[in-house]
C-alpha cells in the first residue's frame, strides 16, 4: 500500500546530515508499489529523486518533487552451477548486510567491498568498488522499472555499460529507470585480491598467512582499514569518498613522478595510470581544512565532511576550491563521485 507524505525532512536520510525537506515522500517495499506509483497521473510530471541509503548524494536545497525511498528487501539464492552461486537481492537491502551474508555462506566476490555504505540498488548505478574489486566483476543482471511506461526490464552486464564509477544509469539512461533488484554471480572457489591498498599489511598484522587466508579474513581486514581511515556518518556527516581517483596518461604520470617521487600510481593499462585523489588533495594542503562546518577530513583528504550545520552549497563550494587547487598544482582534473542534487 502506498502512503505519500508531504514536507518530510531528509536529514535522517542522507549521510551528510543536510537539513533539507522534500515536497513529497513515499517508501517502496515491493515492485508492484513502484509500478502503481508511476501510474498516478498527479505525479507523472513531478521531479523524482530515488534514495537508497542516501550515502552518495549532496543535497543543495529543498527538493520540490517526490523522493522515492527504495526499501525492497530479500536475499535469495536463485540458482547455482559447478563454479558459481547466483544471488538475487532487493534494491533496498543494506549493502554491508549483503556482504556479511555472502561471507558467512562462503560465497566469494564481495569481501573486498565490505562496509561500503548504501544500498544494493545504488551499487550498479555507481559501479561501486574498493580495494581492487568493482561490482561489474560479480554482476550478472538487474531488474528495473521504466519510469515512463512502468514496465519491467532486465539489464544484463553489457546493457549496463559499466565504467569507473559509471554506468548507463548515470549517463544515457539517467533518471529513466528505477532499479528494483540485482543478481550477483559469486564464486564457490575464491580468488583472493590482497594487493591493493593496505590489505596485505593488515592481514599480516592479523596473523593471517597464505595458508590461512579466507574471504572472512579479507572482509575483516577491509573493515579494519575503512574504520581506521574513514569517518562514521553516524558521528560526522559525510558521503565517503567525494572524488573519483583520476586516470591520467602514463607520460603525464612519469613526468609528475619525476617531480613528486612519492606519487602513488596504479596502472590501468599500458597507457593509463590511476592516481589517488586523496594523495593529490593532501599535497595541496587541504587535509584537515575547515571553513565553518564544511571541511576536509583530518585522516582522509578524499572525504569532505559536515561538522554539524553546513549547507550543501557550502560543501560544494569547498569541493570546487579543492578541485581548482589540484588542477593548478598537478594539471589534473578530479571529478565528484557524489551525486549533486
TrEMBL record:
Keywords linked to the UniProt accession: Cell cycle, Cell division, Cell shape, Cell wall biogenesis/degradation, Cytoplasm, FAD, Flavoprotein, NADP, Oxidoreductase, Peptidoglycan synthesis
InterPro entries according to UniProt: FAD-bd_PCMH, FAD-bd_PCMH-like_sf, FAD-bd_PCMH_sub1, FAD-bd_PCMH_sub2, MurB, MurB_C, MurB_C_sf, Oxid_FAD_bind_N
Gene3D superfamilies for the chain: 3.30.465.10, UDP-N-acetylenolpyruvoylglucosamine reductase, C-terminal domain (3.90.78.10), Uridine Diphospho-n-acetylenolpyruvylglucosamine Reductase, domain 2 (3.30.43.10)
Enzyme class of the recorded protein, top EC level: oxidoreductase
Family of this protein: Belongs to the MurB family.
EC number: 1.3.1.98
Name this polypeptide is given: UDP-N-acetylenolpyruvoylglucosamine reductase
GO cellular component: cytosol
Principal cellular location given in the protein's record: cytoplasm
Domain FAD-binding PCMH-type: 18-189
Amino acid at each position: 500500500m502506498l502512503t505519500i507524505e508531504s514536507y518530510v525532512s531528509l536529514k535522517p536520510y542522507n549521510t551528510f546530515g543536510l537539513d533539507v525537506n522534500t515536497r513529497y515522500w513515499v517508501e517502496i517495499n515491493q515492485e508492484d508499489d513502484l509500478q502503481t506509483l508511476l501510474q498516478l497521473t498527479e505525479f507523472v510530471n513531478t521531479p523524482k529523486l530515488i534514495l537508497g541509503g542516501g550515502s552518495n548524494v549532496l543535497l543543495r536545497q529543498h527538493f520540490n518533487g517526490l523522493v522515492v525511498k527504495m526499501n525492497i528487501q530479500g536475499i535469495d539464492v536463485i540458482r547455482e552451477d559447478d563454479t558459481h552461486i547466483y544471488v538475487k537481492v532487493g534494491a533496498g537491502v543494506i549493502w554491508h548486510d549483503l556482504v556479511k551474508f555472502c561471507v558467512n555462506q562462503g560465497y566469494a566476490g564481495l569481501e573486498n567491498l565490505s562496509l561500503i555504505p548504501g544500498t544494493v540498488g545504488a551499487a550498479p548505478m555507481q559501479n561501486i568498488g574498493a580495494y581492487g574489486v568493482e561490482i561489474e566483476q560479480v554482476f550478472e543482471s538487474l531488474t528495473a522499472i521504466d519510469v515512463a511506461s512502468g514496465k519491467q526490464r532486465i539489464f544484463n552486464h553489457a546493457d549496463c555499460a559499466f565504467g569507473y564509477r559509471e554506468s548507463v544509469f548515470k549517463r544515457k539512461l539517467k533518471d529513466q529507470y528505477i532499479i528494483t533488484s540485482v543478481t550477483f554471480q559469486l564464486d564457490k572457489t575464491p580468488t583472493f585480491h590482497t594487493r591493493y591498498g593496505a590489505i596485505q599489511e593488515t592481514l599480516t598484522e592479523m596473523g593471517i598467512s597464505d595458508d590461512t587466508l579466507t574471504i572472512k579474513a579479507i572482509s575483516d581486514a577491509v573493515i579494519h582499514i575503512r574504520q581506521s581511515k574513514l569517518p562514521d556518518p553516524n558521528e560526522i556527516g559525510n558521503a565517503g569518498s567525494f572524488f573519483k581517483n583520476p586516470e591520467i596518461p602514463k607520460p603525464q604520470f612519469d613526468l609528475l613522478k619525476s617531480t613528486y617521487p612519492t606519487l602513488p600510481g596504479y596502472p590501468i593499462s599500458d597507457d593509463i595510470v590511476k592516481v589517488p585523489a586523496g594523495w593529490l588533495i593532501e599535497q595541496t594542503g587541504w587535509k584537515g581544512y575547515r571553513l565553518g562546518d564544511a571541511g576536509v577530513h583530518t585522516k582522509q583528504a578524499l572525504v569532505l565532511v559536515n561538522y554539524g550545520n553546513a549547507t550543501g552549497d557550502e560543501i560544494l563550494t569547498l569541493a570546487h576550491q579543492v578541485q581548482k587547487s589540484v588542477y593548478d598544482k598537478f594539471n589534473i582534473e578530479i571529478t565528484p563521485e557524489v551525486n549533486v542534487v
